[in-house]
Design a protein that fits this description.
This protein is of the alpha/beta class and about 210 residues long. The protein has helices at about 20-25, 50-55, 65-75, 110-125, 135-145, 185-200, and strands spanning about 35, 40-45, 95, 130-135, 165, 170. A hairpin with a 4-residue loop joins strand 5 and strand 6. The longest helix is centred in the middle third of the chain and has 18 residues, at about 110-125.
Length: about 210
């Protein structure tokens, strides 16, 4: 945890009353901004709040899919709380989303992703992590478009799961949505990400331009 960090939830004080997407304002319970360690090397990015996060206000919490995700972080030593925690204790990890509001009937539109993009870009810029982990196909496509020179349609979250993708300023390590992972995929991610964490991943960053 950064020594100067005051809050774990929405640590950058982003707008909690945003009304830029009128349709989502009608369906959300609350806005779900980023959560975690602002000095983190690893930023995990999902598509939108799950039903649990819509209630708790914290990404990747409050439902079975979130528990599967936090269980992986626990195995990696990035989460010190039970997997069912609504306010997990994170170290070296920051959790955030492409879009901050939930419609229970549909995924976000491309326009809604673009509207929310300044929040995500600001978090990434201020945290300046080493590794971005897109969680799910939509997050992989959006982050690949923004941070790699490879056409986004050449990526597939299943094929690229737990691999390292060199990007512009960051490396990406895609993750299949935890709710859709097989036990083998989960084990593969934990093993490969553990190897990455034990490597000299910080040494490459200074040689790349943002």
């Amino acid at each position: 945890m950064d020594a100067h960090q005051q809050d774990t939830s929405n640590p950058f004080g982003m707008d909690e009353d945003c009304e830029n997407c009128p349709a989502l304002c009608e369906t959300r319970t609350q806005i779900v901004h980023g959560y975690g360690d602002v000095g983190a090397d690893f930023v995990f990015v999902g598509e939108r709040p799950g039903p649990g996060a819509d209630e708790t206000g914290v990404p990747f919490t409050g439902d079975e899919r979130a528990e599967a995700f936090l269980s992986i972080l626990r195995r990696l030593g990035l989460c010190g709380s039970p997997a069912d925690s609504d306010e997990p204790e994170l170290a070296n990890a920051f959790l955030t989303l492409l879009t901050r509001c939930r419609d229970p009937e549909r995924p976000p539109t491309d326009e809604e992703v673009v509207t929310c993009e300044p929040y995500l870009n600001a978090e990434i810029r201020m945290i300046n992590p080493e590794i971005l982990v897109p969680v799910g196909e939509r997050a992989l496509r959006e982050l690949a478009t923004e941070y790699t020179t490879t056409p986004a349609d050449e990526f597939d979250v299943v094929d690229d799961h737990a691999t390292t993708v060199r990007g512009r300023g960051f490396e990406l390590v895609p993750m299949v949505d935890p709710a859709d992972q097989t036990e083998e995929q989960t084990q593969t991610f934990v093993e490969r990400f553990s190897e990455l964490m034990a490597s000299d991943y910080r040494q490459t960053k200074g040689r790349r331009s943002r």
